[in-house]
Amino acid sequence: MKRRNFVDIFLGGSLLATIAAFMYPVVRYVLPSRSAAGGGVQKNVVAAKAGELPPNSAKIFKFGSSPAILVNTAEGQLVALSGVCTHLTCTVRFDTETGTLFCPCHNGRFDLGGNVLSGPPPRPLEIFAVETSGADIIVSRKG
Amino acid sequence: MAAKIGPSLWKFLDDRFMLSALIAFGKKKTVPEHRRSFWYFFGGICLFLTAIQIATGAMLLLYYTPHIDAAHESVQFIMSGVKFGWLIRSVHSWTANLLIGLLFIHMFSTFFLKAYRRPRELTWITGFLLLVLFMAFGFSGYLLPWNELSYFATRVGTDIAGSLPIIGHWLKTVILGGPEVGQATLSRFFWFHVALLPLAALVLIGIHILLVQTLGMSKPIGERSTKEIPFFPDFLYKDALGWTLILVIIGVLCVFLPWEIGPKADPLVSTPLGIKPEWYFTFMFTTLKLVPAHVLSFEGEKLAILAFMTGGLLWLLVPFLDRRAALEKRSPVFTWAGVALALYIVILTVMTYTVPKL
């Protein structure tokens, strides 16, 4: 290798290394930290107090970092599902007339088993387990 | 005395900034004048509106607080507690919408006049990137008042980014600053809106204007008129007339339709019925409503997003695809493709607002 080529490669490599050394902290600063990105998964949560929900009504509650929905059906059965539509993540609402869950963003509709009834959602909603412990209604992830 | 100060001041500034040379350049530079030269004015109007955005945006910074507990309240204070705050915010919001509408008109007029043909490929590319950038300005600025509509629009918009293959989840987390729309998202969107995007826009606008100045205005294919007018003062005066007109329109809109704030965002409520994003995203939003859940074995939503991205890339590369225009020949296939795209955008946008059951 000629001396000039060696110097060119050495200087070019040094320049690239310097740029990388400056850019690395900048990029790491801009990227969210692991804790902010939501590392852990919450197992259960107190979603409501017993008797808080009248029949044929629903309540949105926070489960981990996402909204979930607790429905007390017209028959008085408690059902909890993910509140995040599987299409484009809008929060679903309980339609009291049809007893189904409706996403107003793109008109997706789910039954209370989480299954897609109509519209563009590609997957069913995740279903959670519900149990009453004293005065609390506790929702937990299945499995 | 005043007569003496005027020329002296002019000489003082001229010696330092070479203003005479600048005016001589403006007089020497000419702009083609023909029956379609009306469309040349839209670029200048967009630049004028950008200047309004910088000025009003800087003023809003004086009172805006980028925190989820205070953002909505600070915008309310701007609208009702600060003298002429309603005017400054309304000018900023109305101008943002007019600017994007005019950028679309500017882009389509450039497309139909085939002004992208050699040697103006980079002018087209920087122009298209500026439109995308200004849509990003709109998207990031929309969240800043932290209201219900903007909260859910951000969730939908960022989930589209999250649908991209391989990098989607990572990209969504980087944009949001976490798994969900929250304080980190507001901080990031504020940073995008007032720091990152303005810097990128300044660079792109600089390149775009430099190219327009260097290469001059493009004449449509087959245009026989050889008439030209000086850029300064003739074209600039006509440009200024357009700026005045748009300023009057903004003033009327702000006085009669001041920009609303809407209810404060609450992550623990269901998405409100009839939700829509800003009008310039509605053609994509409604397309996503119409696409079925599955097309063959693919998810309809992902397929639609892929189609938008492919379409955007093809649109960006039009100067290199339209070989006939590059040879100064008419290219009706591209013209009709442009007509189809414009109709698609207009029809889907109108349908969003006129077909409630959609």
Task: Show the helix and strand layout.
The complex is a heterodimer of chains A (143) and B (358).
Chain A (H helix, E strand, L loop, with lengths): L2 H28 L13 E6 L7 E7 L2 E7 L5 E5 L10 E3 L4 E4 L4 E3 L5 E3 L8 E7 L2 E6 L2
Antiparallel strand pairs in A: 1-10, 2-3, 3-4, 4-9, 5-6, 6-7, 7-8, 9-10
Chain B lengths: L1 H16 L1 H10 L1 E3 L8 H20 L10 H10 L4 H28 L8 H23 L4 H15 L5 H9 L6 H33 L12 E3 H26 L25 H9 L3 E2 L2 E2 H17 L1 H4 L1 H4 L5 H23 L4
Antiparallel strand pairs in B: 1-2, 3-4
Helix pairs in contact in B: 3-5, 3-10, 4-5, 5-6, 5-10, 6-7, 6-9, 7-8, 11-15
Describe this structure in words.
- The complex is a heterodimer of chains A (143) and B (358).
- Chain A contains one helix and ten strands; from the N terminus they run H-E-E-E-E-E-E-E-E-E-E.
- By secondary structure, chain A is of the alpha+beta class.
- Chain A folds into two domains: 1-31; 44-141, 3-layer Sandwich (Rieske Iron-sulfur Protein), CATH 2.102.10.
- Chain A has a six-stranded antiparallel sheet with strand order 1-10-9-4-3-2, with no helix packed on it. A four-stranded antiparallel sheet of chain A has the order 5-6-7-8, with no helix packed on it.
- The longest helix of chain A is centred in the N-terminal third of the chain and has 28 residues, at 3-30.
- Chain A is elongated, with a radius of gyration of 25 Å.
- The model of chain A has no long low-confidence stretch (mean pLDDT 90).
- With 358 residues, chain B is an all-alpha fold.
- Chain B has a domain at 35-218 and 228-264: Cytochrome Bc1 Complex, Chain C (Up-down Bundle).
- Helices cover 69% and strands 3% of the residues of chain B.
- Chain B contains 15 helices and four strands.
- Chain B has helices at 2-17, 19-28, 41-60, 71-80, 85-112, 121-143, 148-162, 168-176, 183-215, 231-256, 282-290, 300-316, 318-321, 323-326, 332-354; strands spanning 30-32, 228-230, 294-295, 298-299.
- Chain B has a two-stranded antiparallel sheet with strand order 1-2. A two-stranded antiparallel sheet of chain B has the order 3-4.
- The N and C termini of chain B lie far apart (71 Å).
- The relative contact order of chain B is 0.13.
- Chains A and B meet through strand 2 and strand 3 of A and helix 7, helix 8 and helix 11 of B.
